[in-house]
Sequence to fold (221 residues):
Amino acid sequence: MGHTATVHLVRHGEVHNPDRVLYGRLDGFGLSELGKEMALGIAEHFVQRAEQGRPVHMLAASPLQRAQETIAPLSARLGLPVTIEERVLEAENAFEGLSSVKRQLRRPKYWPLLVNPFRPSWGEPYKQQVARVLAAVKDLSDQAIADHGEGAEVVVVSHQLPIWVTRLWAENRPLWHDPRSRECTLTSITSLHIGPGGVESVSYEEPNKELSKQALALPGA
Fold:
């Protein structure tokens, strides 16, 4: 029996974004008041798990402000430092910075970017996102097992698209998808259960389900 670990990929909380900008990797988009409430809820969720004998051993997050603000309450509650993990960053997107994206896409200058939804042609290829997230997951789980032994748990705050395509890959599903179909709500937890052969199974939960119902739904945000 080889070592095992669980890496929990948590999507960040709601962002303060009154202009409904597709913010992508842009700086300066922090959590809304609702998002801060979500971050507290996630912290409470993992603290309760620890009290039930399932402690978290390591924390990591995307360098973007919304991810760092989401993990901060958990870091404070657990007294654990946060590793900045560039490989779980939001996907690159040519439409970054636009508001009312659906309306903007009617403009001919953007049409060449839309030729191949399977790749996708407007942003970072799905396979590339999966590869970098999995590389981060492997390094973090290896480190957690080395430091804390079998059954080590890691929480990583990331972004919807990289988390979702990694889950699709882990479940042997096609990476191409309709963005509206993503099961990855704000501060949801997509847990990768790691065994000797890599990712062996995936589980999903929404501890902040009631709060996420109040959120402003923006695909990909």
The two ends are 40 Å apart (CA to CA). The first helix runs from residue 33 to 51. The first strand starts at residue 5 and ends at 11. Confidence is low (pLDDT under 50) at residues 94-101.
